[in-house]
Amino acid sequence: MEVETLIRAYNDYIKRINAYKYALKVINFDAATGAPKSAIKERSEAYSFIALEYFKLKTSPEFKSIIANLKNVYSKLDKYYQRIVDLEIKTLDKISKIPPHRYQEFSKLSAESEVAWEEAKEKSDYQIFKPYLEKIVSMVKEFAHYYGGEIDGSLYNRMLDDYEEGMTIKKLDEFFNTLKERIVPLLEKIKASKIKIDDSFIYKNYPHEGQILIGEEILKVIGFDLENGMLRESAHPFTSSISNSDIRVTTHIYENNVISSIYSVIHEGGHGIYDQNINPKFKGTILYDGASMAIHESQSRLYENVIGRSKEFVHILYELLKKIYPLQMKKITEEDLYLAVNKVEPSFIRTEADELTYSLHILVRYEMEKLIIDGNVSFDELPSIWNQKMKEYLGIEPKNDKEGILQDIHWAGGSFGYFPSYALGNAIGLQLLHTMKKELDFKQAIVNKNFDQIKEYLAKNVYIHGKMLSPMELLKEVTGEELNASYYCDYLEQKFKEIYLI
Ligand SMILES: [Zn+2]
User: Fold this and answer.
1) Range 34-43 burial, b when 16+ CB lie within 10 A, else e
2) Catalytic amino acids?
3) Rounded to the nearest whole angstrom, what is the distance from the C-alpha of residue 296 to the centroid of ligand 1?
């Protein structure tokens, strides 16, 4: 068959897959943003029916033969279709390697395990969760064997590769060691600093409507296209790319915290801007996605922290807050706001961590995961190892399991190897910025509210590629360098030394 015919067959087929995907995403978004609870039964019935059809389409013999046919003419395909074929084969392989009954058992176990985790967290009792964690770990190890087993003698390497193509313990050890050597002592100095930041004004009452206005205004300012997207509210902020012309972000508003929603909006806006600027040529294909989670997170964090918490951006924010909340902001200066949004305070909760301590939370999780997957550790010891690491890196010791090991839902659902992407994102953002600064005056662009200049640079160099390149290939292509954590550490040191006068 002719190559064009085969490509057409692929494109026709994925239209069907995409129609189901579209419906699933809209149902999800709807459910998370205020669809009536009363219809939960109908909704989940509809959802699971469509999800099953979607799964069948993605794994059907027809689809497999379309991909196999393309593979047969691989050398005649252009580089885009070659990459599409590689990625589709990888996905199909992954799905087909797990015996269906084991997959079903895993779905059941992870659902039960998440419930057990919730109860354990509420009662602050790790013992409730422990038997589930043991079973989950044994199953994710079994699955890692199906996917190809150890890489360089490690199953954890296999799991890392699943989230970040090509990522290994060797690379991550080096990465996290740099973070450990540079951020831990910096945090100690900050704790000893005489500078104490008063951020109490943040927690006054800031009525809901004003926060919505601010959120929309910020999205406009940073260059999120509201004509091809929207902002809604949900319990936890997220971004949903329904289609290339429909990218939706959400936030959560707390009337007693004026910055929480603002920074969620900037973070999700960063994800949204990425998705809005992927090469339209990839529309509908597996390439129409971010390069990886770490690369995606590098963008949301670049917007949230590096741009959003900069002096230049705080100036814009300050004007906006004064206009919408003149009473609450009456005696507050721009400097007060800058210090408040950059206050460093080690806490037990990752999701509430400040910019400096965030990656240390990930360091703890990374070391725990290595032990759990590759090490010979007893599950009874895990809570105390966790607490010890928190003390060593963040200088605070959890008093109970709720403050400690029961922090995150990830392990309950079997996600091992996922956490490092957050810290990688932080560092990759700064590495990309270092290169960007050779071409444009980053700070001046913020001062001039010329966010399009920043967006255009990132679109041209990062977003446009979609999933064409693996994350580390993309990083190398843009910066000419392998992963390098020192730009991130330099940035943190410079910023926080100035704030805390150390
Ligand atoms: Zn994110």
Assistant:
1) eeeeeeeeeb
2) 268
3) 7
